[in-house]
Amino acid sequence: MLKGLLFRPAKRTVGIYYFSSRSTQIEVKDKNPYKTQVKPIDLSFETKKLYETFSDVHDDILNQQLVYYKQYPDLRQTYSKLLHYTMHLEPRYIGRGIFSIYAYKLLEKPELFTEENLKKACVIAWCHKLMDATIIVEDDIVDVTELRYNKPAWYKVEDVGEHKAILDAAFLSSSMWFLLLKHLSTHKYFPNIMKQILTIFSVCNVSERIDITQHRIEDLEKHTYSAKGVALAMPVLRKALYLANIDVDAHKATEEFSIDLAYFLKFEDDFNGVFNPMSDEQKTCTDIAEGRPSWVPVQAYKMGNLAQKKILEEHFGKNNEESIRKCYELFKELRLEQVFADYKENFYNKMYAKIHQNLPKILPVKLFLDYLNFCLTTGLRV
């Protein structure tokens, strides 16, 4: 269930990015950039660097969290298993962290793009995943989720269970703060970075509270636009800005862009949960059976005639095979897969135009285009 904007495009020479001082108010000549501009982003360097730091981050966490438990080697092994199981995943499941390193690379002054500062970017990236993992472990218990990342949810692992998993989620959360304090406490914008993480953590938890409340189909739309998606998109760019010592003047446009993107990602997550529950997200989805706020039933109710609305009113949120089947049949009848495909294309074209027309000069267009492409190709999976 967990389920616009930067300078002109960069011209790269020997690893250094140069940005034009010309206005970004340019005409977008491509009338349908979705068909010509969407492309994957090469993040192999960032992925390699992130995985290289996992061992140090792993040891930092265990050394600080277990400082008073050195006489219990089995405990260290237990928490090591937790970190590997919930953090050290395929690149597509740590994409936010990977892209945040890429964003920092584009934003930082070349003379400050050092190994030491790159490691700080990697630490922040792992903090992204620790926040995700904290919420996911708890979310899977609440949702009674069987699978996550195509393997048993953490609380379903042998000798874990719900009670230990709840405590493990707290361990993951405190690990994030220990890492930030150790590696970034002297940074000029450390309070801003901490506030970003706390804000997103709070937003996600409050949104979870909204999501686990069953709603009538007639009232669903107002809850579907919760701030939950903001937790997916906003911190990736803003923390990179702070790490590169770019002040608050650049943050308003970045936040506006991120919020727009966040709602798309939330709706895409809703869509995949219904139509592609195991092909990409690798998790079980119970949104329809439990009456959760979701883009799919909202669109169905808006588009349906009186008879179709009646079907949803009678069957949405009912956890039985017949009701779930009737909802899915209606979604197919209304061709919601094509509706989402059209929405995705229109969204990309709108955001592409915003990037080229509305960005402050201090922010590189390339970064925002790459982030948009990243979200619509690889995506921000948690």
UniProtKB/TrEMBL annotation:
Its cofactor is Mg(2+). Pathway: Pheromone biosynthesis. It holds the Pfam family polyprenyl_synt. GO terms for molecular function: (2E,6E)-farnesyl diphosphate synthase activity; dimethylallyltranstransferase activity; metal ion binding. Belongs to the FPP/GGPP synthase family. Keywords: Magnesium, Metal-binding, Transferase. This is Farnesyl pyrophosphate synthase. GO terms for biological process: farnesyl diphosphate biosynthetic process; pheromone biosynthetic process. The lineage of its organism: Eukaryota, Metazoa, Ecdysozoa, Arthropoda, Hexapoda. Transmembrane segments: none annotated. One of its GO terms (cellular component) is cytoplasm.
